Amino acid sequence: MTSFKTLPEGPVTLRNVTVPGCILQSPQDLIRTDLHVADGRLTDVPGKAVEMGGAMVFPCFIDMHTHLDKGHIWPRSPNPDGTFMGALTTVGRDRVARWSAGDVRRRMEFSLRCAWAHGTRAIRTHLDSLPPQDEISWPVFAEMRDLWADRIALQASCLVAVDTIDFDGRFRRTLDLVVEHGGVLGMVTYPCADLETRLLKFLKLAEDRGLDVDFHVDETMDPTVDSLRSIAQAVIATGFPHRVTVGHCCSLSTQDDATAARTMDLVAQAGLHVVSLPMCNLYLQDRGPGTPRRRGITLVHELKARGVNVSFASDNTRDPFYAYGDLDMIEVMRQATRIGHLDHDATDWTNAFLANPAQACGLQPPSLALGAPADLVICKGRDWTELFARPQSDRIVLRAGRAIDTALPDYSDLDDLMEPA
After folding, report:
1. Which of 238, 272, 336, 407 could form a disulfide linkage to 312, CB 3.0–4.6 angstroms apart?
2. Among the options 219, 302, 386, 419, which is catalytic?
3. Quick one: average pLDDT of 334-339?
4. pLDDT value at residue 2
5. Fold for the domain defined by 12-60+366-403
6. So where does this one cross the membrane (predicted)?
7. Which residues contact 277 (CB under 8 A, 6 or more apart)?
8. Is the pLDDT confidence value at 159 over 70?
């Protein structure tokens, strides 16, 4: 058969490929089929046949929660103890000392090259927006969005802490930057004395400017931390008309069943989109002396059972919040399946890496329907166990029907940025 890495030019038929049934709106787990590609799109006209031997095919992925501005600073600013506070403190120091426009631009570009090679077509990044960093990072993001527009669709959300926002002061400038660059209004939430009041002000600003919102929520194992409930109640009370995403929601997994159920019912009623970040949460949560006992992942099965739109994403990449990762959604899918036990539940979890994040981000859903762009990730693994047993580093990535170069950038490309401060 033709080499797995080589496909002929021109119209082609990918014969005998395996597709998750949910992508084809089927209740089946996996389906064997043929896909025809011509003029950059999926078609019903056969081309030159290539026997694929059951290789699994996905539309290119959507990574809806990342931190491109933090990425790849680990060599110069490692987390001293692997804890959340260690990450927060270390990133803060590095940001103040090192995050010039040139530094942020170089690291963003490196991350996007990785995501492109792995087969990602859209990314939402959170941008640390504590002044004066907002005036630096947002213009760099806009530059990257323009440069990558024909390869990866980029969205950005500001990242500010709930109890530091001066709603009538400097935050108005951050808000203007978000609006100017077509962004999403983001905030980190945790209990504070006037949380409910701050949430209402935040949602009012977003509604007035026509903005979606994206929260970092309850990134802790403390069961008393429940700002997720407050967010859901605020959205219900205000009838907030735009998309609301909540990420992490770790403490939900440590609450008693009745408390968690009441909060999840409110999340469903409010129509919140939940994104779980299992790799980063596994790394940070329940870290302390001895062996960790809890995974940090939120209650994805129970939320999904209530009709909540649940997604998974990469989160941090080689920074103090997560020392590893490469913006590879196949890796995210593999790890989420293992960490969250997605493998013996339903047959539609693949949507949590494709259609669900598209819905949360207001993007065109990935599709294998006739006429859809031939933006495909083709893996040699023929079923789930083969797919997840190996990293699929020999995958084929098609964009507009053409195989791209999947060689990853070398870490040495950033060596000149990695000298310790």
Report:
1. 336
2. 219
3. 98
4. 45
5. Urease, subunit C; domain 1 (2.30.40)
6. none
7. 65, 247, 248, 312, 313, 314, 315
8. yes
